[in-house]
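Fill in residues.
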């Protein structure tokens, strides 16, 4: 894993139950001490229970406390993590540049922690087999949907980023076998995306989702889920910026894996589309 577990702990801290938040606060405050503790000692120092420590590990997507200690130890060997920054009033251009780059680097590192190799492989196979792929997202997630469409269009896939969810509601029930619906929602709670995912599932359409790590309304209806890290909420919507970047990274990884699996065909398709673009510029 290349990201910072400490940054992810800080991001999710406000969403945790009180007992788990105590564990999070202690780890962030005393990371080097935690490395040498067992579950019972950490629970006592944090003023909570051993079961809360274990639940906290699961909230981070980890199997248990030993894995958490390994990640905290790895963080302690790195330079201080860059963290996420929001913009304050009357910032200088230099400070805006520094904060924007620092936040972007942090989200790239944190995204690496949530890349599931098995999910990427399964997503590639489902996209290869699909006679048609329909993608939908609202707001910033709609931009991700369009990025997906333009990438796979160049490879000759029948892929459509549909902006009207009512149109999609008429398409999905009569779709061909192996058709794929790809829902994009950072929160995993966007009602239009969740409802379309449910409709697709009920209609026998394969379903895939891209969302932040955790359980949410989208989860029960997705055959495959690709995860991004949780981004911090901020006044100037840096969360939307961070989540968008994380989503784009995951899609790039998916695309390059897909392209690599059929390298010769990909190169041929890209050459054809490149020449077609050149021809209309003459």
């Amino acid at each position: 894993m290349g990201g910072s577990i400490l940054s992810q702990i800080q991001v999710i801290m406000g969403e945790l139950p009180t007992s788990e938040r105590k564990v999070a606060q202690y780890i962030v405050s005393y990371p080097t001490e935690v490395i040498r503790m067992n579950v019972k000692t950490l629970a006592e120092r944090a003023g909570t229970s051993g079961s809360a420590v274990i639940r906290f590990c699961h909230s981070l997507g980890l199997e248990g406390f030993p894995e958490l200690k390994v990640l905290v130890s790895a963080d302690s060997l790195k330079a201080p993590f860059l963290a996420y920054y929001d913009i304050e009033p009357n910032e200088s251009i230099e400070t805006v540049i520094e904060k924007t780059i620092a936040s972007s680097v942090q989200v790239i590192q944190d995204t690496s922690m949530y890349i599931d190799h098995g999910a990427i492989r399964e997503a590639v196979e489902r996209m290869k087999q699909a006679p048609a792929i329909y993608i939908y997202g609202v707001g910033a997630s709609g931009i991700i949907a369009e990025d997906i469409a333009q990438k796979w269009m160049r490879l000759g896939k029948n892929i459509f980023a549909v902006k009207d969810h009512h149109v999609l509601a008429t398409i999905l029930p009569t779709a061909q076998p192996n058709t794929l619906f790809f829902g994009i929602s950072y929160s995993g709670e966007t009602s239009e995306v969740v409802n379309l995912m449910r409709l697709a599932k009920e209609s026998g359409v394969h379903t895939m989702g891209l969302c932040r790590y955790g359980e949410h309304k989208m989860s029960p209806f997705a055959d495959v889920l690709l995860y991004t890290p949780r981004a911090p909420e901020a006044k100037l919507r840096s969360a939307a910026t961070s989540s968008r970047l994380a989503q784009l990274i995951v899609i790039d990884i998916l695309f390059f894996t897909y392209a690599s699996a059929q390298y010769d065909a990909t190169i041929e398709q890209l050459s054809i589309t490149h020449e077609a673009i050149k021809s209309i510029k003459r």
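The chain has a mean pLDDT of 88.
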